[in-house]
Design a protein that fits this description.
By secondary structure, this protein is mainly alpha-helical. The protein is built from 17 helices and no strands. It has 2 domains: 199 residues, MFS general substrate transporter like domains (Growth Hormone, Chain: A); 172 residues, MFS general substrate transporter like domains (Growth Hormone, Chain: A).
């Protein structure tokens, strides 16, 4: 036992790096799509509905495949499930441009989205297993990687990657899959697997989320509200700014929305133990998001950019704190079930609320309807956070 503590300390930094890289892999290949959408649109003759389906398919799969991901974790363990998820992401991403053809593009996008969906419940499970006493820090580390990845592909594809491959969007997809596949090799090399006998004795046998447990739904609605704030703003901010006659602010607004997320991850790293598992931070972040959405109505460029940045901060802070809840509240062998239920409900809502927002905008032609998904998400987050119990463990 005396020799075990130094060994755990030696493994801490490599595992934190692994978690950070896995966080990057959650979004890197998905965010490689928007910069090349015009090229895909032109070459494959996709209409706007097909473009919307292409960009929305991974998010939908995050929810649909979260529960099969829980089953895979129960059968293989979180580490091996994460490796399989990474391989699906990397291979699916690289093959999206094969042909190129529409069926291959959509089929491999589905494979890639399913891989991410497997990884998402695996990461909280790894956090609980690798860092049981440092859940806030470990969660903030992989969430920081996720947030950084949302900027990497979007920032570097057009100025650097496309010129490197003669403007080929299929080659750009293959390029961004390389670091993902490299992460799989790193996980295999740096994190030793359990021995076969020990793995069999410790492997979790339960995988189906406890839908009868109130907190499964509460956590899912909280995550759904948080995600609706971010995805709703990302989807409708360009259209909203165009409708109010400020299209020149689209680039700055989206940049502010995404860069505003990073300070939240560093703040959770610093204050994690004080704020994880508490209701008040969720309520405060919901109110910040709600107020910032209101400030988007002010026709001033600095106000709109600042409001976009605060929306990103609120959404990212809420996301990190929500992702920390399964390993904080559940036993190690139940984290994947709680996480899968939360992710399934949360991402279903994050797909549904922006869709309803678009329907409301189409029906009413009111520009303010663009704020509906974010406002609905912030209100939902505040209401659920005010009633959920986060001070006692989930015993499923």
């Amino acid at each position: 036992m005396d020799g075990q503590v130094p060994a755990e300390k030696r493994l801490a930094w490599p595992r934190l790096v692994i978690l950070w890289l896995l966080g990057i892999d959650l979004r890197l290949t998905i965010l490689a799509v928007p910069p090349v959408l015009p090229l895909i649109h032109r070459q494959l003759h996709l209409d706007e509905k097909m473009i919307a389906a292409l960009t929305g398919l991974p998010v939908l799969l995050f929810g649909l495949a979260a529960i099969p991901g829980s089953l895979l974790i129960a059968r293989l363990g979180a580490r091996r499930a994460a490796i399989w998820g990474i391989l699906l992401v990397g291979v699916g991403s690289a093959l999206r441009g094969l042909g190129p053809s529409v069926p291959m593009l959509f089929a491999m996008t589905a494979v890639m989205g399913a891989g991410v969906a497997v990884m998402q419940p695996a990461l909280p499970t790894l956090v609980g297993a690798w860092f049981p006493t440092r859940v806030p820090l470990a969660t903030a580390v992989y969430a920081n990687g996720l947030l950084i990845s949302e900027m990497l592909a979007a920032s570097f594809t057009i100025p650097f990657v496309l010129p490197l491959f003669g403007g080929s969007w299929p080659a750009s997809f293959a390029f961004w899959s390389v670091p993902v596949l490299a992460t799989a090799l790193l996980v295999l090399a740096v994190t030793p697997g359990a021995k076969a006998g020990a793995q069999a004795r410790r492997a979790p046998v339960r995988w189906w989320p406890d839908w009868q447990h109130l907190r499964t739904w509460q956590l899912g609605f909280m995550l759904g509200g948080i995600s609706a704030i971010y995805f709703g703003c990302n989807a409708f901010l360009p259209g909203y700014l165009t409708a109010i006659g400020r299209p020149g602010l689209i680039g700055a607004g989206l940049t502010a929305l995404n860069t505003g997320q990073l300070p939240a991850s560093f703040l959770v790293m610093l204050l994690g133990r004080r704020i994880v598992g508490r209701r008040a931070p969720f309520i405060v972040l919901a109110l910040i998001g709600l107020a910032s959405l209101g400030f988007l109505l002010v026709p001033s460029a600095p106000v709109i950019i600042a409001a976009s940045s605060l929306i990103g901060f609120a959404a990212a802070g809420g996301l990190i704190l929500a992702l920390a809840l399964p390993p904080h509240l559940a036993r190690t062998d139940d984290v994947h079930r709680v996480a899968a239920g939360m992710l399934a409900i949360g991402y279903a809502l994050s797909f549904l609320l922006p869709y309803l927002g678009g329907a409301v905008w189409d029906a009413t032609h009111l520009t303010i309807s663009a704020l509906f998904p974010g406002v609905a998400g912030a209100v939902l987050l505040a209401l659920i956070s005010a009633t959920v119990r986060l001070d006692s463990a989930i015993r499923a």
